[in-house]
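Hi all, long-time lurker, first post. I run a small reading group and we've been trying to get comfortable going from sequence to structure in the token notation. Rather than ask abstract questions, I figured I'd post a concrete chain and ask someone more experienced to write out its structure so we can walk through it together at our next meeting. Sequence below, copied exactly:
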Amino acid sequence: MYIKTRSMEIIQAIDEAFLRMSLLGLRILQSVITIPIIGFAAAILDDFSNASIHIPGKATAAEAVACVCIVYVALSFLPIFFEGALFFTTCMILDALFLAGWITLTAVWDSDGTGSCVAFNQKYFNIHPPLSYDRTDCRVVKAMYAFMIINL
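-- Answer (accepted) --
Happy to help. Here is the structure in token form:
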């Protein structure tokens, strides 16, 4: 990582380095939190499709937002090592959009993530005989919901 410090004062150079390091740390944390959401949503999508149950749109939305977030995190590593005010402005706008997406997903999953497993099973698996993974799906949804809140 090369930062042009010759034309900067020492305080400005330290601020620049701290900003870049903190952005790297936040992006790594964001990817560590988002990767399990991809797995949880994929497990729910798989179980619902195996049970021939209508897949809720919020499960597909959770998978899509998490996948796009990981791509964004991967692409945002490169410009951190370089410079440009346009990059930081673009990151700020995209971070605001992802914040809105995670808030929306958290609100949509609220009843499933905070409700009881009995209510979850009645909501999605009531018309079918009990499946071996319906209780597991409830726990996966609760874990995914917790990771969504942490990702905020």
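A couple of things your group might point at:
The longest helix spans residues 10-50.
The helical segments are 10-50, 57-81, 85-108, 110-114, 117-125, 134-151.
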